[in-house]
Structures
1.
Amino acid sequence: MLNRYFYRFFLTTIFFSIALFTLYCSKKYLSITNADLAFSSFMPVKIQTLNIIEQQKRLIVIGDVHGCLNSFERLIEKLDVTAEDVIVLAGDLVAKGPDSLGVLRKAKELGALCVRGNHDDEVLRWKKYLNTVTEELLEESNLPNGLVFGEHQEIASSLPEELFSYLVSCPVILSVPQYELLIVHGGVDPTKSLEVQDEYVVMNIRNILDNGSPTRKTSHGTSWSKIWNRIQSTKEHPTTIVYGHAAVRGLSVKPYSIGLDTGCVKGKELTAMMFPSKELISVKCHKHDL
Ligand SMILES: [Mn+2]
């Protein structure tokens, strides 16, 4: 009799231990931090300030282009861009789409500013790794944590010096004090000051888990922008964050956050917002950027 109770108790304990351990691991896996990467990228400038001068007409922020050169060119045409406009790309200029190098070339030619996206960073991490490794050592089993063979490696190995210089110059956070704006790729941890934000989190974040950790998943926790808006609405001088990275959520205009990734590479739209008017202009994208 005693034996049977003991057996039940034993099994229940094992069951709950496994359940708790699984929960712990999944939470750990979900949260993101720079420390997860064994091999770091070329360290970006963390915060850059953009001062708009009087002669400059419009500040134009454009969502994730992801190598869709045709759509990017059509949007620039539709915007009727002149030399007095300031263009900022909200990150993820490269990968997924057909012409990453073409997009970088066009952005550089336009004198566009940019912030670093998670895919841009992955290309730069590959570039740094390729600079240090010999051909013989380039094997799946030797790859540092966070790197996988694929298009990021291909882009990195065909990246000419001048386009590398352009991409590596994109800061993580671009601050526009005149318009009380911040431009980033992913978002921020709303509970932390700008100075202590983790660069990797800013490039990757989508949600905040219930335990307060940032995650790139949209399936767990609360969107960072919801928390950001709640905090900013109590401030005397609130700041608005313009970002990309969240194609699943599409265009998301809230009082203090503006999400501009409208899924061009998935055949949806490429979107630009003008400041200070907050006017939106977009073009329709096509599958494979045709
Ligand atoms: Mn992204």
2.
Amino acid sequence: MALHRAVGCDTTGCLALYLSTPTAGPDLVLFAAERAGWGVTAGGLVMRCPSCRTHGLAVTERGNCPVCTGSTHDGPHGETCHHCGHTVPHPAVDEIGDEVVAGPAR
Ligand SMILES: [Zn+2]
Ligand SMILES: [Zn+2]
């Protein structure tokens, strides 16, 4: 069984998690987390999620944010995280109704 590699925020009461792919090594996870906005101290001993790091606000509600697992809402540009502000653009769906993400011809 593959394990998801995850790093959690060390702020008390903060629920933020950064999830990585099961194939990524521990070093790669920290690197990816840092790239996503997390604060990682030397050796990855203390982690700070982007929200705690930049706003000092703990993530108190879990949601779909790929960066901090915080709760998200529908913003003008996509699904926006309440906590770290990360935005996932809406997939190219709707509008017409059956338009699907571009891919190889069916
Ligand atoms: Zn945090
Ligand atoms: Zn977030």
